[in-house]
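Researcher: Sequence recovery benchmark, item below. Answer with residues only.
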């Protein structure tokens, strides 16, 4: 179920971004 996986994916993505020293892209601001 996607609703269950979403928080896990976002958490791991945030962790990855922090390790790489980058900020995750905010899709809502990229129009």
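Model:
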């Amino acid at each position: 179920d996607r609703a269950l996986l979403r928080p896990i994916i976002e958490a791991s993505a945030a962790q990855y971004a922090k390790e790489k020293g980058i900020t995750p892209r905010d899709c809502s601001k990229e129009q």
